[in-house]
Amino acid sequence: MDIIYEIRRRHLVQKQTISAIAREMGISRPTVRRHLKTVEEPRYARVQPVSPKLGQFEAQLTQWLELEAKLPRPRRRSAHRLYEGLQELGYGGAYDSVQRFVKRWKASHHGPKLTEAFIPLEFARGDACQFDWSHEQVELAGVLQTIKVAHFRLAYSRQMFVVAYPRETQEMVLEAHNRAFAFFGGVPARLIYDNLKTVVDAIFTGKERKFNRRFLCLANHYLFEPVACTPASGWEKGQVENQVGNVREWLFTPLARFASFAELNDWLAQRCRELAQRLHPTQSERTIAACFADEQPLLRPVTATFDGYVEDMMRVSSTCLVRVDRNRYSVPASAAGQAVSVRRTADHVHVVADGELIAAHPRRYGRDQLICDPWHYLPVLEKKPGALRNGAPFIAWELPKPIQLVRDRILKQPKGDRAFVELLMLAGEAGLDALTVACELALECGIISAPVVMNELRRLIAPHLPAAAIAVPDGIALTMEPLANCQRYDYLLGSTNVH
User: Fold this and answer.
1) Using alpha carbons only, what angle is made at residue 272 by residues 269 and 277, rounded to the nearest 5 degrees?
2) Do residues 161 and 98 touch, judged by C-beta distance below 8 A?
3) In Å, what is the CA distance from 330 to each residue of 316, 341, 359, 394?
4) What does the CA dihedral 189, 195, 197, 198 come to, rounded to 10 degrees?
5) What are the boundaries of each domain within the chain?
6) pLDDT tens-digit readout, 393-419
7) Is 207 a residue whose pLDDT tops 50?
8) Which of 159, 241, 369, 370 is most buried by a 10 A CB count?
9) Are 256 and 139 in contact (CB under 8 A)?
10) Do strands 370-371 and 327-330 pair parallel, antiparallel, or not at all (unpaired)?
């Protein structure tokens, strides 16, 4: 613009000719004539740069974009992941070429994306941690399923922690906090949430909230302040909102495959440590791990882990079962018809009566499953031995092989049901290992019956008497000890050949 101004000033004010201006300024006369007609600031249309190295890979990239446009948004790959895919096919160009192509393709198919304005936030060390859930797809034990992932992010250092669960119920929330605080090695002063139902029971005007009572027990145990965001204001915990998208790209695209939740969560924790080696987004000269090392000493130490169960009062059915999350779990027969406390965690179901633990089961997910402990039904089996053959707890009971062989033989004998139940009742006191050994001994001798097995079992569990010397008074001591003489038996039988 300064050249245009100088040309117009010389010609219009100083009355110089076009030839003189061109000669003195070292430009051509057509350029002078063109600038004399310019009044507004010139605007140049940006020419999109060509990507010669994309070339043959452009068709593949277009195909990927068209296919992934039909997928749910969480399963679409970002431009960087598409770039990595092209590299595996031999692409040697720059990432910028792929990024520009993807941007143009999305703009032509979905329209330009509007940018929303936000306010930058800053947090002190040890002050805040943000929490959120996301839904991801993984393959566990060969089955494709949607899982729930709990996200934690320390707002100062950007250190993250993620853990996966089958659902996002309250016991999962409590257990996720225990894992996160153990991973961080401490507790921040505040935790920021959106208004999820497992945390907030009611939303009032402004920032006032009614938090869930069980969740407040967690906050009281670890002494952190829960903060709920304004509804529909995700920017108040924007770091963890952004983390959800990044984790989906980094960890769950392409599809993650593991044998169980335990293996998946071990891998997620390891990846969180590895990703902490990246540069901090605002302190570009330091890594996230270095910033976390500064923040970690300011976290409140964890003195004891919170017992993160959710409790419900239930009545035990006549079949000695309680229902938890559409599955049924057994309890001892002595509790049938009684009210008990059922405490569920992310991994276990515990049944408590009169302050004592009476049953514990690993928690199952799915529907309409029956989880039984056969020992719970032994008192009932003693009165109803016929239920041994068709009782659901005993059909699926995986007994050791020797016990199975003995059971099959005894059940074919008269009154075999009751006889084998008596063995089980005795094994309830002695243990299944002792019964296994007794059955092995019976199989070795070749005589398989309930009395033989019971005799072997009682010999195994009989207490061993101490080998102590018997004190004999001096007055009754023998002067001549008797000698063993087997011929005395022949004498008693009437034999005359006694020498």
Assistant:
1) 145
2) no
3) 9, 13, 8, 13
4) -10
5) 2-36, 55-110, 128-298, 310-371, 378-461
6) 888 888 899 999 999 899 888 888 899
7) yes
8) 159
9) yes
10) parallel
Given a contact cutoff of 8 angstroms between Cβ atoms, the answer to whether 265 and 164 are in contact is: yes
The answer to whether 433 touches 469, Cβ cutoff 8 Å, is no
pTM: 0.69
Q: Are 379 and 333 in contact (CB under 8 A)?
A: yes
**Integer CA distances (angstroms), 376 to 132, 206, 322, 373, in order:** 41, 53, 13, 6
CA dist 10 and 22 (Å) reads: 11
Q: Is the dihedral of CA 418, 423, 428, 429 positive or negative?
A: positive
Chain-centroid distance, C-alpha 340: 28
- Which residue carries 């192509």 as its tokens? 101
The pLDDT of 375-383, averaged and rounded, is: 90
Q: Which of 355, 323, 354, 320 is nearest to 335 (CA)?
A: 320
CATH class for the region spanning 128-298: alpha beta
In the chain, the amino acid numbered 431 is G
Using CA atoms, how far residue 226 sits from 195, 211, 257, in Å, is 11, 9, 35
Kindly give, in sequence order, each residue whose CB lies less than 8 Å from that of residue 325, ignoring residues fewer than 6 positions away: 344, 365
Is 357's pLDDT higher than 60?
A: yes
In single-letter form, the type of residue at position 157 comes to S
SS (H, E, C) the chain: CHHHHHHHHHHHCCCCCHHHHHHHHCCCHHHHHHHHCCCCCCCCCCCCCCCCCCHHHHHHHHHHHHHHCCCCHHHCCCHHHHHHHHHHCCCCCCHHHHHHHHHHHHHHHHCCCCCCCCCCCCCCCCCEEEEEEEEEEEEECCEEEEEEEEEEEECCCCCEEEEEECCCCHHHHHHHHHHHHHHHCCECCEEEECCCCCCEEEECCCCCEEECHHHHHHHHHHCCEEEECCCCCHHHHHHHHHHHHHHHHHHCCCCEEECCHHHHHHHHHHHHHHHCCCECCCCCCCEHHHHHHHHHHHCECCCCCCCCCEEEEEECCCCCEEEECCEEEECCHHHCCCEEEEEECCCEEEEEECCEEEEEEECCCCCCCEECCHHHHHHHHHHCCCHHHHCHHHHCCCCCHHHHHHHHHHCCCCCHHHHHHHHHHHHHHHCHHHHHHHHHHHHHHCCCCHHHHHHHHHHHHCCCCCCCCCCCCHHHCCCCCCCCCCHHHHHHCCCCCCC
CB 346, CB 329: distance < 8 Å:
no
59-91 burial, b if ≥16 CB within 10 A, otherwise e? Answer: eebeebbeeeeeeeebebbbbeebbebbeeeeb
The most distant pair of C-alpha atoms in the chain lies apart, rounded to whole Å, by: 169
Residues constituting the chain: 499
Task: Write the single-letter amino acid at 438.
Answer: A
